[in-house]
Design goal:
alpha/beta; ABC_transporter-like_ATP-bd; 4-stranded antiparallel sheet; ATP binding; binds adenosine-5'-triphosphate; ABC_transporter-like_CS; ATP-binding; Rossmann fold; 2 domains; 6-stranded mixed sheet; 267 residues; P-loop_NTPase
C-alpha cells in the first residue's frame, strides 16, 4: 500500500462512536481540511478524545467510516497497513506521555527506532533537529521531570513530528499551562502547520487557543455535530448553545462540565 506524503483531508462519514453499552456520537459527518488546523470543541466527556482515538485507528467505530484522503481507515484490516498509516500521524497526548526514565532525546528518538532502520547517528541528528525546531535544542539530555509543563508539551510536539507526519493530532495541548505558555504553544502549532503543511486536529477547551489557531471549527454537542465552519461563522452563529459556550456561561453547558466549573470555583 502506498501512503501519501502530502497532507490530506480527514473525512468522517455517518460516524457513530462510543464504548460497549455507550454511544457517544451518532451519524457524525465532518471534513477536517488538508493542511489546515481544525479545532474540535465540546463539553467535557462528549467524546473528543475518543474521536481522536478513532482517527488514529486505536478504536473501532460503532458504525460509519473515517477517510484519510481516499483511504478508508475503518476498512483497513491489515495490521501492517494500519501501522504504516499511523507512522504518518503524529500525536501530542494530553499528558505529554514522555517516559520518565528516558531523556528528552531518547523519548523523541523512540518512533524512529521503532519504525525505521536509520543508523543511530542519523537518528541523533534528526532528534536534535526536531528539538531545535521546538526551542529545546539545549535540553536533549534532560529528563522529563526536569522540565516545565510547557517544555514537556513542546517535547511532545517534537516527538509527534519526528517521523515527518502529514497529520498532527493534539489532545488539549494547552491544558495545565498558564495563558502565556499556552499562547507560545499555539504559535508553535501554527508554525508547524505553515512549515510542514500538516493537517492538524486540536481538541481543546481553551477559547483563546481556538481564536489563535483555528482555520476550521467543529463543535460537538449532545452526540452530534452542532457546528462546522470557520471562526467568522462561529462568531455570527445565533445558536443559543454556541453563544453561551463562547461567552463561557456555565449555565447551559453539559452537566459534567458545569460540575467541573462549580468545583473549580470552589478552589
Ligand atoms: N476506555 C473507555 N471505556 C469506556 N468508557 C470510556 C473509555 N474512555 C472514555 N470513556 C468515556 O467516554 C466518554 C467520553 O470520554 P472522552 O475522554 O472522549 O471525552 P472528552 O470529550 O475528551 O472529555 P474531556 O474534555 O473531559 O477530556 C466519557 O464519559 C468517558 O468516561
Amino acid at each position: 500500500m502506498k501512503v501519501s506524503r502530502l497532507a490530506q483531508d480527514i473525512t468522517l462519514k455517518e460516524l457513530s462512536l462510543g464504548y460497549p453499552g455507550k454511544v457517544l456520537m451518532a451519524n457524525l459527518n465532518a471534513v477536517l481540511p488538508a493542511g489546515k488546523i481544525s479545532v474540535i470543541l465540546g463539553g467535557s466527556g462528549c467524546g473528543k478524545s475518543t474521536l481522536l482515538r478513532h482517527i488514529l485507528g486505536l478504536n473501532v467505530p460503532v458504525s460509519g467510516e473515517i477517510f484519510l484522503g481516499e483511504t478508508n481507515l475503518t476498512k483497513l484490516k491489515d495490521e501492517d497497513e494500519l501501522r504504516l498509516i499511523r507512522t504518518r500521524m503524529g500525536v501530542l497526548f494530553q499528558d505529554g506521555a514522555m517516559l520518565g526514565s528516558l531523556t528528552l532525546g531518547e523519548n523523541v528518538a523512540l518512533p524512529l527506532q521503532e519504525h525505521t532502520e536509520l543508523p543511530d547517528v542519523i537518528i541523533e541528528e534528526v532528534v536534535n533537529m526536531k528539538l531545535r525546531m521546538v526551542g529545546l535544542g539545549e535540553f536533549t539530555h534532560y529528563f522529563p521531570n526536569q522540565l516545565s509543563g510547557g517544555m514537556r508539551k513542546r517535547a511532545g510536539l517534537a516527538r509527534a513530528m519526528v517521523m515527518d507526519p502529514t497529520t498532527l493530532l493534539c489532545d488539549e495541548p494547552s491544558s495545565g499551562l498558564d495563558p502565556i505558555t499556552a499562547a507560545d504553544l499555539d504559535q508553535l502549532i501554527l508554525k508547524l502547520k505553515e512549515t510542514f503543511n500538516v493537517t492538524t486536529v486540536v481538541v481543546t477547551h481553551d477559547l483563546d487557543s481556538l481564536f489563535n489557531i483555528a482555520d476550521h471549527v467543529v463543535v460537538l454537542h449532545q452526540g452530534r455535530c452542532l457546528y462546522q465552519g470557520d471562526l467568522d461563522g462561529l462568531r455570527d452563529s445565533d445558536d443559543e448553545y454556541l453563544i453561551d459556550f463562547l461567552e463561557r456561561r456555565p449555565t447551559i453547558i453539559d452537566n459534567s462540565m458545569a460540575r467541573s466549573v462549580k468545583f473549580r470555583s470552589r478552589l
